[in-house]
Amino acid sequence: MKICSTIAEARAACLDARAGRRRLGLVPTMGALHEGHLSLVRAAEAQCDAVAVSIFVNPTQFGPAEDLSKYPRQFERDCRLLEKEGVDILFAPPVEEIYPDGLVTWVLVESLSEKLDGRSRPGHFRGVTTIVAKLFHIIEPEAAFFGQKDAAQLAVIRRMVRDLNFPVEIVACPIVREPDGLAMSSRNAYLNREERSRALVLQRSLQKARQQFHDGEKSAAKLISAAKEVFASEPQVVLDYFEMVDPDTLDPVERISRRTLVAVAAHVGSTRLIDNLVLNP
Ligand code: PAJ
User: 95-154 pLDDT, tens per residue?
Assistant: First the structure.
């Protein structure tokens, strides 16, 4: 695995990897890798001739009161895991390489960036689309792999790619969960034992909505209120949002008559967690 910390090195390595029309796949990450990330790497390996992974804890997508400084960093361990997966290129630049002069040029997907997590985390998606656009320019992948776990992020990136004609195929990969159903996340490392068990309420609320939907309830308001009741059993978990939206526009739906994204975010102690599922009528 070639480890690149500068843009020039990464460009040269990716140019080589794409030689002879080989298909290069990119998996963007912020490191502290878990099986969720590795599932994206495996999907990329299966669909591409060469795979690049980026590890960059992107400061522009963190709010001033968020966890940038304490975000888990485990570079050596991440390298070993990626090496084992047969990754060809690891791009892991320092912050100064990516933002040498600060930043006055942003990529902003209007409207979508203010929905779901964008509403609770102002400026978050602007930071995400800007770094992902930069990575696409540096790596020039044919395909890029993202997790359905961050469903709003996926919608925002798909829209950016469409609006700005990036020649990149966006591939969505299913959510990888712990055996008890908790969606894997680098932030799960913040949870103490009690919080870890309380965190299951997100998954329980989604299952409640799914079950009532399968029992015939099609009204989003009723499904949402049933799901929110589940949160009453965990008063220490503070719900941020529980929404039923169109997976592409992220606009709320009233009745579940087509593919609907059911998304939840909540604070467990000081840790913000998200989860979702898709209902298919
Ligand atoms: P990060 O949180 O490290 O996630 C990197 C990728 O892994 C994202 O596409 C995310 O959706 C996916 N992922 C995380 N947990 C997952 C799980 N349990 N199952 C499946 N996929 C999972 O998302 C980011 O980083 C950043 O915003 C980034 C896109 C890298 C831009 O900085």
Answer: 999 999 989 999 999 999 999 999 999 999 999 999 999 999 999 999 999 999 999 999
Ligand 1 centroid distance, CA of 216 (Å): 33
The pLDDT, as a whole number, for residue 21 is 85
- In this prediction, residue 192 has a pLDDT band, given cuts at 50, 70 and 90, of very high
Identify whether 146 is part of a domain. Answer: yes
Are 130 and 247 part of one and the same domain?
no
The model carries a pTM of: 0.98
37 is catalytic: yes
Closest approach atom of ligand 1 to CA 148: 11
Whether 118 is in the pocket of ligand 1, judged by its Cβ within 6 Å, is no
Instruction: Specify the ligand 1 atom closest to the Cα of 33.
Output: 3
The three-state (H, E, C) secondary structure of the chain, written as one string: CEEECCHHHHHHHHHHHHHHHCCEEEEEECCCCCHHHHHHHHHHHHHCCEEEEEECCCHHHCCCCCCCCCCCCCHHHHHHHHHHCCCCEEECCCHHHHCECECCCCCCCCCHHHCCHHHHCCCHHHHHHHHHHHHHHHHCCCEEEEEHHHHHHHHHHHHHHHHCCCCCEEEEECCCECCCCCECCHHHHHCCHHHHHHCHHHHHHHHHHHHHHHCCCCEHHHHHHHHHHHHCCCCCEEEEEEEEECCCCCCECCECCCCEEEEEEEEECCEEEEEEEEECC
If asked whether residues 148 and 209 sit together in one domain, one would say no
| Residue nearest to ligand 1 atom 12, measured at CA | 147
